[in-house]
Amino acid sequence: MASLRDTLNNLARDYAIAWSSGDANAVAEFFTSDGQITINRGDPIVGRAAIADMARGFHSDFPDLEVRCDMLRWAGPHAIFVWTLEGHHARTGNAVITRGWEEWELDAEYKIRSSLGWFDADDHQRQIDGA
């Protein structure tokens, strides 16, 4: 039986791999059926179908998207997934490197119930624009 550390590290690794795969449904499968993600205090995106649509948008914007897990911390059913996103924007062709994190609330099966995501949207847009 895997330790909690191994289980959560594998979860973070596999979540980053799913984002990098271009398969939006693979990203959504990490969430509970009624799971939600909120990015930079925006409106919550609720349910696997909506989460897959959101991921599909990132994949469309960055066809060569790569997400890496930089760090993971946890306490009980809560975890912080620190990530780096890299890719070339589909419209501008500009290289973008964005760093951020997600604060997860996990269920007993290690599915994400809730994710609060954060990144510097202004810097992200400046890179897209090539400014």
Structure description:
- This protein is an alpha+beta fold and 131 residues long.
- 35% of the residues lie in helices and 40% in strands.
- The protein has helices at residues 4-21, 24-28, 48-61, 121-129; strands spanning 31-39, 45-46, 66-75, 78-88, 95-106, 112-119.
- A 6-stranded mixed β-sheet has the order 2-1-6-5-4-3.
- It is globular and about 45 Å long.
- The mean pLDDT is 97.
Explain the layout of strands and helices.
Blueprint: H1 4-21, H2 24-28, E1 31-39, E2 45-46, H3 48-61, E3 66-75, E4 78-88, E5 95-106, E6 112-119, H4 121-129
Cα gyration radius (Å): 14 Å
Q: Which H/E pattern describes the elements?
A: HHEEHEEEEH
The order of strands across the largest sheet is 2-1-6-5-4-3
Overall pLDDT confidence: 97
Query: Percent helix among the residues?
Result: 25-40%
- Write down the overall geometry: globular
Cα distance spanning the termini? 50 Å
Proportion in β-strands: 35-45%
Structural class computed from helices and strand pairing: alpha+beta
Low-confidence stretches: none
Main beta sheet strand tally, sense and closure: 6 strands, mixed
E-strand count: 6
Q: What is the number of helical segments per DSSP (H or I, 4+ residues)?
A: 4
Characteristic key phrases:
alpha+beta, 6-stranded mixed sheet, 131 residues
What is the compact description of this entry?
Helix content is 35%, strand content 40%. The protein has 131 residues and is of the alpha+beta class.
